[in-house]
Every structure is written in structure tokens, then in C-alpha cells.
């Protein structure tokens, strides 16, 4: 740059010829003429892409890893950091930036070449909570399946919370908000969401929205203002959009393996707690947890939790079943062919008749399943004891072991089904604990007859002779004990002879 400056000054200011300057500097006149035509200093222009000697031996491997990732679903592709780690494991000793530059050359350039700009957003403490969904692949109980993960993020402190579900239905949205607000132990002023049908039923002009009635009930319960983003404008909740990508790479790669969904959510909750130890992206000198501790002072008290269910009226079939999605759930037989209310929660089904709860089931997310509670059919079983053998509700019935042994013994008897049904009917009168204790005693004494079990049951529920003797101390006592008098017998005989 200094040489160019001297040449331009000698020619343009001092009036020297290009030939004189060429002899003086040893630079060709063509180069001097090029310098004189420049308004700016000379720039170095690459004629070919730079090559790293350390990466040279690993370029083929890096291209193969990159091409293999392109064949995978987008959510399962590795980041550049993941590719770099794979190279390091293979012996690569170069820098991460070199791998970034090489991967950038492998990626196809956009057709328009335009870059989209965004306006930076800033949120006050306790102001906004952002919400979004993602789909992740995990292994539950040895089976690979896709789960729906609800993502939450406080916009000021960047505190994250995630919880996984098997579906993305309305009741899952309600349950996710209840759990998130319980995790934060406070309520922000508003929540920023997208336009999913579980929350928004109509999109008007601008920010005009018609929200789902149950979602509005949730917002009214916690006195939060719902704000729906403009369609195709994810930057309005850019923090949660970015969190979905970051946590997918950080928490769900490699695939998580757990026995149940509850175990998975316990793990995710602990990881959310651990993520709070990271430095805040803006207040670098503080952690996310430190900023969150300050933000909690601006959150409103949580109060009573919202009862997050969706309710519908259903008709009970003649087989005492109601349907939700593709599954059927049993109802007490007294409500056959009538209409009841079905409340669907994220993890259970509650059946009600008015304000009375008449049944509860664990929710099934499989397809075309029959979920029975055999006790719902007890009244019908009393009239039709033969159904005990082939009735669908009674197959694989998980009874206590003593009761299973008695059932197996009575099944071999001529009237065994009737006797076992009568034994089951004792549950309604005496309760589960007393009947099961009597059955355990019957197995211990090796007596399986119904009459013997009933006798043992009565011995358990009736007061013992010791208790009666103890209560006898409270009876009134004779003050003058009776004395023997044989003349009374003589008087009886005399009176009999007179009457004859």
C-alpha cells in the first residue's frame, strides 16, 4: 500500500513520468499505469479456494459424512460441530473454522442470493413467554417412535422448559402450559404462540385472531394475554425457533432411550435445570439462572392450577364402551345406552355423569385398543356368570394371587363360575381389603369353598368374643344377688294340683 501511495504521488503530484518511476522502483510501466487508475488500494483476489494441509487427508471422509447426512431427515442431520467431532475422532488435528469453510463450499447457494434481515427484539422482565412444538425421534420401551415436544422460553432470562407427549392434541397444549408455569413458579404478562389449530381457530387481518375456547379459558385462568405471530414470520418468536434447533442437537442426539414417557420427561426436566448454568447471551457476566432469579420477582403468583382437559358428550354402547380417537374405554354397566361426559386429559380419561365421576382410565395412544375395567361389568356378571370364562373384560384380569388361585380351583367345579361371581359380589358389601384378606387366609388354610371363605370373612368383620367380654364390663350389675329357695318349687307343684 505504501509503494502504491509513493508512485501515485510521484506521478500525479511531482509530475514524474511513468518511465522514470519504473526505472526508480523496478516496477513495470503497465503495473504503474494500473496503480494510477486505482481510486483505492490494491486488493488481493484469490484465484482458487484455499486448501488446508491438515484437512487434505480427511476431505473425502468429510464429503461422505456430509452426503450421508443429506440423505437423512432434516431433524436427524448433524451440525458442523458434530461433523468436526467425527473428524477429530478419526485423527484430524486442524481447526474448527477450516471445517466450517469447507462445509460452506459444499452447501448449494440460494438461487436468489438475497439475505433476509431481522429486527433485534428486546423484552422486559416478566413480559413474554414464547411457545412452540417440535418433533423428535426417541426410543421408548425398546420401540422407536416420534414424540411431540412442547418448548417454552422466557424471553428476558432465556430460561427454557420442554416436555414431551405422544400427540399434539388440545389437551396436551393445556397440560404443557400448566407444567411450564409450574416449572417457572410464576405467570408472565403475555404468551407468544404460532397459529396452530389447537390455539387459533381463525386468522383475521393483522393481529386479529379468534382463539380456541379452551385455550382462552387457560389464558383467562392465569390472566395472560395471548399473542399470535403473523403467518410465516417466525422471527417474532425467534428465541423459541432457535431453541428448537439448539436443543434438538444438544438433547436428542444421539437418540434418547427410556422405558416410559414419564422417565423421558424426568430426564428432560433435569436437563432444563442444568441448562440454566450457561451464560446469558446478552448479559455475559451472568448465568441464565441468575437472570431468571431476578425475573421471577416480576412474574405474578401462580395460584391454583388449571384443570387442563377437553370435554365431549359421548353415548355409551350396549357393550358399556365409549370411544375416543380409535380406542374404546369401559363404563359401569348401569350407564349402558345413555349419554355421559368424557374428559380427555394428557395422560388419562375421566368419565362423568353430571358432577359424579363414574370411571377413570389410563389413556392409550395405540390404535384400536379396548381398555377395560372388569369391575364395571360386575352387575352384568352376576346375571350371566358364564361370561366369566370368555368375556373380553375378564381375560388376563390382574387379580391378587390368592384370588387367582381360588378362581382356578372353582373353574374346575360344576358351579364354580357362580360361586366365584358371588365371591366378587362380596367386594361391594365388605370392600376389597377384607375380602382379599379372607381369600389369603383361605389359601393359607387350603380351603377354597365359597362357604368357608364367607365364614373366614365374617370372622374378620364381626367383633371377637374378647371384645364382647370387654364391652360387658359396661353392663349394669345386680345389687342383690339371688338366693336359692326350694319352697318356690313346692308352691308350683301345689298350684298345679289345685288347678287339676
Calculate the terminal CA-CA distance, rounded to whole Å.
160 Å
- Which CATH C-level class of the largest domain is it? Alpha Beta
Overall morphology: elongated
CATH topology of the largest domain: Nucleotidyltransferase, domain 5
Number-wise, the strands total: 15
**Number of H/I helices:** 20
Q: What's this model, at a glance?
A:
This protein has 500 residues and is of the alpha/beta class. It is 42% helix and 17% strand.
Sequence-ordered SSE layout with sheet pairings:
Layout: H1 2-12, H2 18-25, H3 29-37, H4 53-56, H5 59-70, H6 80-89, H7 96-106, E1 128-140, E2 143-154, E3 160-165, H8 170-184, E4 190-193, E5 200-203, E6 209-211, H9 213-222, E7 225-228, H10 238-251, E8 257-258, H11 261-275, H12 288-295, E9 310-315, E10 321-324, E11 327-330, E12 339-344, E13 348-353, E14 356-362, E15 370-371, H13 378-383, H14 387-390, H15 401-410, H16 416-430, H17 432-445, H18 450-461, H19 465-472, H20 487-499
Parallel strand pairs: 1-4, 1-8, 4-7, 11-15
Antiparallel strand pairs: 1-2, 2-3, 5-6, 9-12, 10-11, 12-13, 13-14
Helix pairs in contact: 6-7, 15-16, 15-17, 16-17, 16-18, 17-18
Amino acid at each position: 500500500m505504501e509503494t502504491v501511495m509513493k508512485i501515485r504521488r510521484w506521478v500525479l503530484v511531482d509530475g514524474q513520468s511513468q518511465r522514470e518511476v519504473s526505472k526508480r522502483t523496478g516496477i513495470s510501466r503497465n503495473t504503474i499505469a494500473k496503480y494510477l487508475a486505482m481510486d483505492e488500494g490494491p486488493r488481493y483476489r484469490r484465484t482458487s479456494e484455499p486448501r488446508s494441509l491438515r484437512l487434505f487427508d480427511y476431505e473425502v471422509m468429510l464429503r461422505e459424512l456430509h452426503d450421508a447426512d443429506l440423505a437423512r431427515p432434516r431433524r436427524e442431520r448433524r451440525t458442523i460441530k458434530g461433523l468436526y467431532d467425527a473428524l477429530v475422532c478419526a485423527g484430524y488435528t486442524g481447526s474448527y473454522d477450516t471445517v466450517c469453510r469447507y462445509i460452506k463450499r459444499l452447501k448449494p447457494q440460494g438461487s436468489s442470493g438475497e439475505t433476509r434481515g431481522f429486527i433485534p427484539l428486546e423484552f422486559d422482565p416478566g413480559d413474554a413467554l414464547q411457545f412452540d412444538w417440535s418433533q423428535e425421534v426417541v426410543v421408548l420401551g425398546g420401540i422407536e417412535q416420534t414424540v411431540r415436544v412442547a418448548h417454552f422460553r422466557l424471553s428476558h432470562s432465556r430460561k427454557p422448559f420442554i416436555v414431551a407427549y405422544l400427540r399434539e392434541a388440545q389437551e396436551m397444549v393445556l397440560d404443557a402450559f400448566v407444567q411450564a408455569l409450574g416449572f417457572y413458579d410464576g405467570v408472565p404478562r403475555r404468551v407468544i404462540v404460532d397459529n396452530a389449530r389447537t390455539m387459533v381457530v381463525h386468522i383475521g387481518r393483522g393481529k386479529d385472531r379468534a382463539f380456541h375456547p379452551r385455550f382462552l379459558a387457560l389464558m383467562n385462568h392465569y390472566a395472560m394475554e395471548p399473542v399470535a405471530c403473523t403467518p410465516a414470520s417466525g422471527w417474532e418468536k425467534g428465541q423459541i425457533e432457535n431453541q428448537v434447533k439448539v436443543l434438538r442437537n444438544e438433547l436428542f442426539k444421539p437418540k434418547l432411550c427410556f422405558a416410559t414417557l414419564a422417565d423421558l420427561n424426568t430426564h428432560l426436566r433435569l436437563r432444563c435445570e442444568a441448562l440454566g448454568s450457561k451464560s446469558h447471551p446478552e448479559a455475559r457476566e451472568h448465568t441464565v439462572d441468575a437472570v431468571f432469579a431476578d425475573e421471577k420477582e416480576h412474574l405474578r403468583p401462580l395460584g391454583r392450577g388449571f384443570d387442563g382437559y377437553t370435554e365431549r358428550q359421548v353415548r355409551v354402547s350396549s357393550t358399556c364402551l365409549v370411544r375416543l380417537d380409535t380406542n374404546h374405554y369401559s363404563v359401569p354397566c348401569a350407564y349402558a345406552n345413555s349419554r355421559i361426559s368424557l374428559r380427555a386429559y394428557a395422560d388419562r380419561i375421566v368419565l362423568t355423569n353430571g358432577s359424579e365421576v363414574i370411571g377413570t382410565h389410563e389413556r392409550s395412544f395405540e390404535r384400536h385398543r379396548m381398555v377395560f375395567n372388569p369391575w364395571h361389568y360386575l352387575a352384568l356378571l352376576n346375571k350371566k356368570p358364564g361370561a366369566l370364562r370368555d368375556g373380553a373384560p375378564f381375560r388376563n384380569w390382574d387379580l391378587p394371587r390368592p384370588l387367582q388361585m381360588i378362581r382356578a380351583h372353582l373353574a374346575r367345579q360344576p358351579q364354580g363360575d357362580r360361586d366365584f361371581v358371588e365371591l366378587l359380589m362380596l367386594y361391594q358389601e365388605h370392600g376389597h381389603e377384607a375380602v382379599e384378606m379372607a381369600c389369603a387366609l383361605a389359601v393359607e388354610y387350603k380351603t377354597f369353598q365359597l362357604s368357608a371363605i364367607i365364614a373366614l370373612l365374617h370372622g374378620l368383620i364381626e367383633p371377637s368374643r374378647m371384645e364382647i367380654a370387654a364391652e360387658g364390663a359396661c353392663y349394669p350389675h345386680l345389687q342383690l344377688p339371688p338366693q336359692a329357695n326350694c319352697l318356690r318349687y313346692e308352691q308350683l307343684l301345689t298350684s298345679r294340683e289345685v288347678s287339676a
